């Protein structure tokens, strides 16, 4: 089977449309496999995609994004615009109107005060909110009545669809989280594991890093939805097993993030029990360079903090050399095939925001060696490993457990060893790596390694909040429970100033120009982020599961209320 027949776009699944939903819960149970198991159901305390996406079944924002990247109303009556009067002409204010009669899953009313509380929750200086970039630039939130949320910005906000929009910025129930502000946030286990929400499902049981049991929300605003009475989200295993469980054995209806190589894609799809869904968006597999020292010789609380710059990655020549040694097209060929594209950009889409930066696409091993020579790293004892001032050029390279990522580690290690770098590989269970547990030494936020590899993406089609994650004040550390979004501890006042310019620039052409510059400051100008592959979202759906529309601009579970059983 050729790859083009093994991969289907979202439109192919749309062909299966229900005549009508007979009644809520009529289709029984649906089994979903997130092999990176959810570890928390509060997206404000985790940057992990598997946590954000699972939580999106329960917690919703005022709005979200559809499969075209368009803003759509959720809890809001309509999407505010300048044209309908919801956004002020000077772009300094947006007014959201909640739908009347909304209820939380516990039967209590949803009000504007819940939204205001959520803002206070995430922006509390001691809270360590993982999604703080969504609330940058807000001056005040007012709630003149129970259905009105007025957000006032500290200047013109050309992209006001950030706070309370998308899976990373939902509304929390103020009553449930009232005692979870600030430093108390991470200790609120009942709230973080069993949130009360407005989404199509409610939590019945949650076994951390294992399984989430959900049932249809009896107070969901559409009385005919969801079609499924219950949903089981199982975690564990790996991407290959997840794909097989849908495509070959049929044990599951949907499997997220089936990161398997091209040969396996074709082989499994040939079994005929399901289809692979692929859609390109903003998901980039990258290597992050740690700008701080992760040495275990430092005291806990000082490792990977700005108190201690990295002993050799602080030198841009070393970072650039590591990037130059990589053959990105080879990575695409061995890991993704038609579901991947070599890239030098952290922001590969939408097209208007994508830089024409292509410098990294050609591997240059000799150039990398010359840069390391220039930086003073030479092999003085002839053992094949460069050294300087009595120290070997040794780095710890970590990522999550995944066959494709381990293939990447192995080949990248060989390229780095070819330029004289000693490489130690480390793998961490994905549920732990992306879990956000402040007490774990193995999370990607804590970054107790020299370099680490993973992928993530942003909600919607505007990269402003995504690029704002690299602000100096978003660095994870003990003071914010290691929940900051600036994973590699990059800090450049010029970058911060340019993000501020982006926030107040309305002209789309100029916004695109600024976004491209910010992307290049992180990539080709500094090499603190080393993009590898522009990854398509690759997931698997059973032939008996209808209504699935792959969405690369929001969570993959964005329309689970519309899923149904094909009979």
The counted number of beta strands is 21
**Through-space gap between termini:** 27 Å
CATH class of the domain at 280-536: Alpha Beta
Number of helices, counting only DSSP H or I runs of 4 residues or more: 16
Assigned CATH superfamily of the domain at 280-536: Dipeptide-binding Protein, Domain 3
Task: Identify the overall geometry.
Answer: globular
Q: Helix proportion of residues, in percent?
A: 10-25%
Poorly predicted segments: 1-6, 8-20
* Overall average pLDDT: 93
Q: What composes the largest sheet?
A: 12 strands, mixed
Estimated structural class: alpha+beta
Instruction: Supply Rg.
Output: 23 Å
Strand content: 15-25%
The second-level CATH architecture of the domain at 280-536 is Roll
CATH topology of the domain at 280-536: Dipeptide-binding Protein, domain 3
Overview of this structure, please?
- The protein has helices spanning 3-6, 10-14, 49-55, 112-123, 174-177, 189-193, 239-247, 262-269, 316-324, 328-335, 365-374, 403-418, 430-433, 464-467, 493-504, 508-522, and strands spanning 7-8, 29-34, 63-65, 71-73, 93-97, 138-142, 148-153, 201-207, 211-216, 230-235, 254-255, 274-289, 340-342, 387-388, 391-392, 394-400, 422-428, 451-456, 529-542, 545-546, 564-565.
- Strands 1, 2, 8, 9, 10, 11, 12, 13, 16, 17, 18 and 19 form a twelve-stranded mixed sheet that branches.
- It is globular and about 75 Å long.
- With 567 residues, the protein is an alpha+beta fold.
- It has 16 helices and 21 strands.
- The two termini are 27 Å apart.
- It has a domain at 280-536: Dipeptide-binding Protein, domain 3.
């Amino acid at each position: 089977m050729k790859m083009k027949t093994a991969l289907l776009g979202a439109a192919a699944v749309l062909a299966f449309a229900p005549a009508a939903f007979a009644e809520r819960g009529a289709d029984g149970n649906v089994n979903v496999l997130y092999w990176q198991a959810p570890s928390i159901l509060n997206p404000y305390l985790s940057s992990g995609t598997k946590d954000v996406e699972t939580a999106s079944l329960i917690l919703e924002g005022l709005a979200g994004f559809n499969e075209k990247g368009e803003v759509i109303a959720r809890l809001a009556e309509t999407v505010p615009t300048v044209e309908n009067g919801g956004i002020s002409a000077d772009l300094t204010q947006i007014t959201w109107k909640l739908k009347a009669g909304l209820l939380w899953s516990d039967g209590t009313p949803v009000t504007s005060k819940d939204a205001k509380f959520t803002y206070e929750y995430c922006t509390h200086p001691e809270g360590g909110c993982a999604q703080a970039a969504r609330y940058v630039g807000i001056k005040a939130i007012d709630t003149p009545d129970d259905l009105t949320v007025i957000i006032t910005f500290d200047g013109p906000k050309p992209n006001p669809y950030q706070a309370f929009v998308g899976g990373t910025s939902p509304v929390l129930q103020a009553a449930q989280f009232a005692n979870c502000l600030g430093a108390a946030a991470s200790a609120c286990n009942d709230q973080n594991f069993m949130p009360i929400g407005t989404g199509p499902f409610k939590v019945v049981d949650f076994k951390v890093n294992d399984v989430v049991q959900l049932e249809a929300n009896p107070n969901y605003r559409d009385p005919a939805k969801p079609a499924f009475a219950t949903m089981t989200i199982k975690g564990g295993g790996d991407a290959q097993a997840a794909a097989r469980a849908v495509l070959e054995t049929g044990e599951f209806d949907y499997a997220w993030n089936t990161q398997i190589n091209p040969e396996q894609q074709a082989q499994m799809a040939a079994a005929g029990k399901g289809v692979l869904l692929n859609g390109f968006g903003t998901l980039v597999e990258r290597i992050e360079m740690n700008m701080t020292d992760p040495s275990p010789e430092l005291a806990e609380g000082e490792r990977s903090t700005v108190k201690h710059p990295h002993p050799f990655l602080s030198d841009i020549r070393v970072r650039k050399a590591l990037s130059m040694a990589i053959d990105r097209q080879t990575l695409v060929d061995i890991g993704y095939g038609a579901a991947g594209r070599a890239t030098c950009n952290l922001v590969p889409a939408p097209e208007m925001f994508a830089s024409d930066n292509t410098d990294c696409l050609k591997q240059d091993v000799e150039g990398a060696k010359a840069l390391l020579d220039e930086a003073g790293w030479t092999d003085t004892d002839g053992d094949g490993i460069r050294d300087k001032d009595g120290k070997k050029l040794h780095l710890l390279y970590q990522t999550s457990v995944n066959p494709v990522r381990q293939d990447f580690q192995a080949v990248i290690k060989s390229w780095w060893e070819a330029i004289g770098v000693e490489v130690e590989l480390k793998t961490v269970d994905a549920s732990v790596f992306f879990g956000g547990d402040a007490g774990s030494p193995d999370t990607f936020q804590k970054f107790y390694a020299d370099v680490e590899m993973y992928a993530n993406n942003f909600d919607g089609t505007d990269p402003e909040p995504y690029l704002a994650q690299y602000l100096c004040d978003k660095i994870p550390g003990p003071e914010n429970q290691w929940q900051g979004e600036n994973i590699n501890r990059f800090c450049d006042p010029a970058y911060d100033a340019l993000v501020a310019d982006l926030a107040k620039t309305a002209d789309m052409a100029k916004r695109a120009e600024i976004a491209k510059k910010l992307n290049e400051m992180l990539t080709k100008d500094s090499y603190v982020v080393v993009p590898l592959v522009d990854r398509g979202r690759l997931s698997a759906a059973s032939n008996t599961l209808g209504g699935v529309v792959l969405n690369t601009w929001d969570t993959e579970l964005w329309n689970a209320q519309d899923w149904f059983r094909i009979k």
